[in-house]
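thread: overnight batch results

M.L. [08:02]
morning all. the overnight job finished for the chain we discussed friday. pasting input first so we're all looking at the same thing
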Amino acid sequence: MTDKIEKTDADWKRELTPDQYAVCRCSATEAPFTGKWYRHKEPGTYTCVACGAPLFASEAKFESGTGWPSYAAPIAKDAVAEHADNAHGMRRVEVKCARCESHLGHVFPDGPRPTGMRYCINSLALDFEPKE
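M.L. [08:03]
and the structure it wrote out:
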């Protein structure tokens, strides 16, 4: 992972759309089955919309039926950070970009083999770089 990115709240508001800001900086969740990358199948790398850090390879993407893009693993172990999230009366594990600490989504232990994990990620938190 590269150096951490730290910006003021005002900087993030200027650089992100209102919807991206709500997800990335305020931990909002986009509606299921509405995200730009939900059914996307092109080969490449999904990156953080806020800082451009590579997060997930297209090869790790799978159809979970949940309504959000889902990945079996991040592109690198240190690409994301995981934190306990007990908001809304639920016990979940929040996933953030390790570089800029943008909220990405949550991870659940019900994914496919070999990892058994499902990184359930908001499309609004992602950008995409096609494979050349």
